[in-house]
Design a protein that fits this description.
Length: about 130
């Protein structure tokens, strides 16, 4: 299993579509191997997804991600855990412990989103006056 964590400084990058770097954690027989650095292309989110697929990434842990990029990742067989925030080391440990979806690492204001994006309520963004 190969998991990519998009990074900015020592935190999860807030937006996948403009992230330039990732840390790759490889699990072999349930044990993590030494981490690898992965540079992501600067041109587009779709190029980033293609790069992850080429690197045989199975799981993507990232901040916000556009719907087209999320759908493309899933079409490549990449499991996406999006709208994640926090220190990279803590997020990696949470993923290794199976706690990545417990809500603690949800981006502020996002709640816990499943899939590519949570559907908006029918009246979202409309005034009530």
């Amino acid at each position: 299993m190969r998991a990519a964590f998009t990074i900015w400084s020592d935190r999860i990058a807030p937006v996948f579509d403009v992230a330039g770097q990732a840390v790759v954690v490889i699990l072999e027989n349930g044990a993590p191997l030494p981490e690898e650095a992965l540079s992501l292309p600067a041109c587009s989110a779709m190029a980033k997804i293609a790069s992850l697929a080429e690197a045989r990434i199975d799981v993507l842990i990232c901040g916000a991600i556009s719907r087209p990029a999320c759908i493309a990742a899933k079409a490549c067989g990449i499991e996406v855990h999006s709208f994640i925030a926090g220190a990279v080391r803590e997020v990696i440990e949470a993923w290794l412990d199976g706690r990545i979806e417990d809500g603690f690492f949800a981006m502020p204001g996002c709640g816990r989103r499943k899939g590519c994006h949570r559907k908006r309520p029918a009246n979202a963004g409309r005034g009530t006056w």
